[in-house]
Amino acid sequence: MEEILKYTLCHGSGNRFVMVDGVAQEGLLQRIDLDELARQVGYDGLLVVAREEGDYAMQMYNSDGTRAEMCGNGIRCVARWVREHYTKHGGFTLRSGGRCYPIACEDPIHGDLPTFGVEIEVRRSGSDFPRGGESFLAQPIAELASGVEFSYLNLGNPHIVARVQQIDYSLLEELGERIKRLPEWFPRGINLSFFTLEGQQRIFVATYERGVGLTESCGTAMTASATAATLLGLTQEGEEIEVMNRGGMVRCCCQITEQGIRTRLVGNASYESHGEILCQEGRFELSPKGEFQEEIKAYRAFLKALQEKRA
Q1: DSSP state of 138
Q2: CA angle, corner 68, sides to 66 and 72, nearest 5?
Q3: Residue 88's pLDDT band (boundaries 50, 70, 90)?
Q4: Torsion sign across C-alpha atoms 212, 193, 71, 302
Q5: Alpha carbon of 141 to those of 160, 171, 193, 250: distances in Å?
Q6: Is the pTM of the predicted complex or chain greater than 0.70?
Q7: Contact predicate 210/129, CB 8 Å
Q8: Where would I find the beta strands (DSSP E) of 123-190?
Q9: pLDDT for 275-284, tens place per residue?
Q10: What is the pLDDT of residue 52?
Q11: 10 given a catalytic annotation
Q12: What does the alpha-carbon distance between residue 123 and residue 300 come to, in Å, rounded to a whole number?
C-alpha cells in the first residue's frame, strides 16, 4: 500500500535538508522507518518537526541514517516552520537531543532572507571525547595528525576544530575518515572542522561532518569554530563574528561567563521546494510539486554579495 508524506526541501547556509512535519503527520510517521527514509532521500539529512515533553522539537537524521543530537542549520529551518504553523511568538524554545535551545526571529541576514537565531550552550568536556579531559584547547592529537592543534567543544553534538593557515580539503576528508578508526579517542565519532582567520571578526570554516562527510555547511561546526577563535583570543568576546563557508555565511557571538559559554548562531532559514514522498514497502521517492523561486533567487543574490565581499 502506497502512502504519501508531505515534505519541504530547506536549507540553512547551504546545508540542505528534507523536512517533514511530524506533528501534522504523526500517525503516518509512526509507520515509517525514519532511518531508512534519511538514507534514501539524500541531501544532508532529514529533519522532523516533533513534540517532546510539551515543547516543539527537532529530530535530526544524518544522510547515513544515524541520529544527530543537534544541527545548527537544521534547527533554524525547524524554527521557521514552527513559528509559521504553530506559534506566532518571536521567541520560543526548541528541544533537540535532550537539550532546550532558545530561539528568536532575527532581522534578515541579507535582503529579506528569513533569519533565525539560536542560543547554544557550549561545553568543554564530554563523554564522547574521554581522552581529552577538561578544557582541551589547542592541543595535538598525535594519533590523528601531526602539526595540528585541536580544540574540543560540545554544542549538544561533539566537535574538534583546528585553526589552519590554509584549508586542505583532501586532508580534512582523510582525517575525517581516520577518526572512524580511533574509537579510543572518539567512541561515537565526532565532527571535524578546519578554520582560517580571514580578517577582524571574520573566519572561514570547512567541515567533515559525522554521518555525512564533507559538507558545504555545518551550523554547529561554524559555531564551534567561532567559539574556539574567541577562546584562543583570535576574535573578540561579545562581538559578532562573520563565519563563512562554501554554503554561505552566519553570524556568531560568543559570551564567556562564570556560568559557562553561550554562543549565539544567527543565519538564514530558506525553503527551496515542496512536494510529496511516496512511501511503499520500505522504498521512498521524492515527488517535487513546486519551488520557492523568490527565496532561491534571494539566496543566490546573497551568495553573490558574499563572493564580491571576499574578492
Answers
A1: S
A2: 145
A3: confident
A4: negative
A5: 10, 15, 14, 29
A6: yes
A7: no
A8: 139-140, 149-154, 158-163
A9: 999 999 889 9
A10: 93
A11: no
A12: 35
Helices 72-85 and 219-231: angle between axes, nearest 10 degrees? 120
**Catalytic one of 10, 77, 218, 252:** 218
Considering 10, 71, 252, 279, which one is annotated as catalytic? 71
Is 157 in contact with 68 (CB distance < 8 Å)?
Answer: yes
> Exposed (0-12), middle (13-18) or buried (19+): which is 214, by Cβ within 10 Å?
middle
Q: Strand, coil or helix: what is 220? A: helix
Amino acid at 92: F
Tell me how far apart the alpha carbons of residues 306 and 14 are, in angstroms, rounded to a whole number.
Answer: 13
Please give the Cα distance from 36 to 38 (Å, whole number).
5
94 has a pLDDT exceeding 90: yes
Helix, strand, coil distribution of the chain in percent, nearest 5: 20, 45, 35
Residue 241: how many CB atoms within 10 A of its CB? 25
From the number of C-beta atoms within 10 Å of its C-beta (0-12, 13-18, 19+), residue 47 rates as buried
Nine cell digits for residue 216: 558545504
The three-state secondary structure class of 245 is strand
